[in-house]
Amino acid sequence: MSHTMKFLFLFVACFVLAAYADEIVIKVSNFKYDPQTVNAKKGDVLIFTWLSDGSRHDIVPSDSEGSCEESTTVTNLKTSVKSSGTYNYTITEDANTKIYYYCSVGNHCASGMYGTINVVSDTSSTATSGSPSGTSKAPSGTASASGSPSGSPSGSSTGTSTGTTSSSTPSPTNSAVSFNSITVVNLLVFLSSLIMATSLL
């Protein structure tokens, strides 16, 4: 019976981690990482995506924001120089940690090609910051970020309710948080039921 309980705990733990993990896309293009600064929690996956625009870049860890010198303590966030493809980095650091990196090719770092990852707590928002276009979180959340400001012209106060309801739609980030919370609650209830059922055997 003890082996069964251990299996159930591991099974549910995997689902809980999956429910809270997000994928954050960082575009690697000519002289910049977009967005330059992101917030991510432990377990999230950062997907660095080279845009195949003919330029060559890499990722090298540093010890401070804007530093163009390779870190002597951080070694797990590093790639070779390339012009296409992707690189996935899973956050293993604890909350309240900052991870810095830069491009070591030519004078790219001196031209502003460096980035920062803010590791936040599980209850904090994983929305990215520091991006002029706000397009780096999972693909499903990109459109509404640019659509929300456009719903506030003078026409939005007129009597036609059908044209204004979309401007009050909750952001994708809030929806994702609500979904994750419900998922975790359901999993915990499911686990409790299994424990009770197993104890009666």
From TrEMBL:
Compositionally biased residues, Low complexity: 124-173
Blue (type 1) copper domain mapped to chain residues: 26-119
InterPro entries reported for this sequence: BlueCu_1, Cupredoxin, Ser-rich/MCO-related
SUPFAM superfamilies reported in the protein's UniProt record: Cupredoxins
Residues covered by region (Disordered): 124-174
One GO molecular-function entry: electron transfer activity
Keywords assigned by UniProt, alphabetized: Copper, Metal-binding, Signal
Cross-referenced CDD domains: Cupredoxin
Protein name: Blue (type 1) copper domain-containing protein
Provenance organism: Diversispora epigaea
Species classification: Eukaryota, Fungi, Fungi incertae sedis, Mucoromycota, Glomeromycotina
